[in-house]
Amino acid sequence: MDAPQSVIAPSQTSGRSEKVRDVFENVPSYVNGRQLDIRMRVATVTEWAASVEWQRLLDIGCGSGAISLPLLSPASHLTLLDLSASMLATVRASVPQSMAANVETRNEDFMAATFDAQSFDLIVCVGVLAHVDSPAEFISKIVKVLRPGGTLILAFTDSKHFVGRLARLTGWLKELIAPARYPTNVISFSDVAHILRRNHLNLVSKFRYAEMVVPGIEKIVPAGAILKLSRLVFGRCTQNRNAWLGNEYICLLTRDRTAS
Q: Distance (Å, rounded) from C-alpha 144 to C-alpha 154?
């Protein structure tokens, strides 16, 4: 059986992309520190992906593959793209040998990558908008490779929400000891919603939750306990509770069928 295809990263990446790549090459640090986000995203993406028809999926910033690989089936084809070679090595190690031909891995910057127009039925992009040069240009390119009527699942942080502001303060305090490699984008839901409308993307549903903004809590409280508490407070994508408290958005969108 053929191994999953891997494409070498092109040289034309931005300086910011190089810094992002360096940060996410440390797979254990990211995966261990983002357990709540990963589990919330996996559950939501799995439920929403099951509610729409699709065959070809693109995951932009796929990370370890934890979100998209559970969707793999004999009838589907996954293209998993990430800047980090280490993340993609984790993906390839997780693909069942019998399904290897159904998965393509691409070690590229999405903005520099080449795809056929309207070539994907479902695009998953979680936690990436904070790290790109231009969220508007990034979303505009997503629309170009999504077929009319296709589905986009987009997750991002509202940094201007009061919980987001508290998280930024906590992050600033951390950076006094260990400076950040690059500044992340400070965006709000209204900022993103404006870009989505301009690109003829229709909001079908959204799920909101928040992380516990307590430094080091994941080292003290088991990930399972944090997830249970978050579920108790925020529910699931089918029954979102206390959404006003949530600064983490996972949005289900469709591309307008009439848009060019």
A: 15
Look up residue 158 and give its amino acid: D
The token pair at 149 is 């009527």
Sign of CA dihedral 158, 121, 55, 134: negative
> Which one-letter amino acid corresponds to residue 249?
Y
Q: What stretches of 146-257 show up as alpha helix (H) in DSSP?
A: 162-175, 189-198, 217-220, 223-234
Q: Do strands 248-255 and 201-209 pair parallel, antiparallel, or not at all (unpaired)? A: antiparallel
Question: How many whole angstroms separate alpha carbon 73 and alpha carbon 192?
Answer: 32
Query: What is the chain's alpha carbon radius of gyration, rounded to the nearest angstrom?
Result: 18
User: pTM for the full model?
Assistant: 0.87
State the Cα–Cα distance between residues 125 and 232, nearest whole angstrom. Answer: 26
User: For residues 252 and 237, what is the distance between their CA atoms, to the nearest angstrom?
Assistant: 10
CATH domain 5-255 topology: Rossmann fold (3.40.50)
Tens digit of each residue's pLDDT (9 = 90 or more) over 28-80:
666 776 788 889 999 999 999 999 999 999 999 999 999 999 999 999 999 99
Residues of the chain with pLDDT under 50: 1-11, 215
